[in-house]
Design brief:
Strand content: under 5%
Helix content: over 70%
Largest sheet: none
Radius of gyration: 15 Å
Number of strands: 0
Length: about 110
Amino acid sequence: MCCRQRKEFDLAEQNLRLAADNLPCAKTFIALGQFYLDRRRYEEARDLFEQGLPQVSRRYAQIHLQLAKSYDALGQRDRALSEYQKYIELAPYAPDSVEARRRLAQLQSAN
């Protein structure tokens, strides 16, 4: 990654962090969490998704997928299983459900 790209990522993170600090709501927590998830900063992503979870509808499927990916990357299999199952239950025909089903089956066979 070149220096310019690194500076842009740093600036993006600063802006997202400012938004989350000044507008502490699900939307800003999830946006910053996704930023961290995309950069493989799984603990930070998980923490933000967990903060946003109580503030969204129980039917908001995407946050369950984001949590599942975070837990999965952190080796928290039981929690990942639960979140993948919840995502598939809420969004069985979503494009990401195919990948979620595949990963769920892998985790189940590993147990």
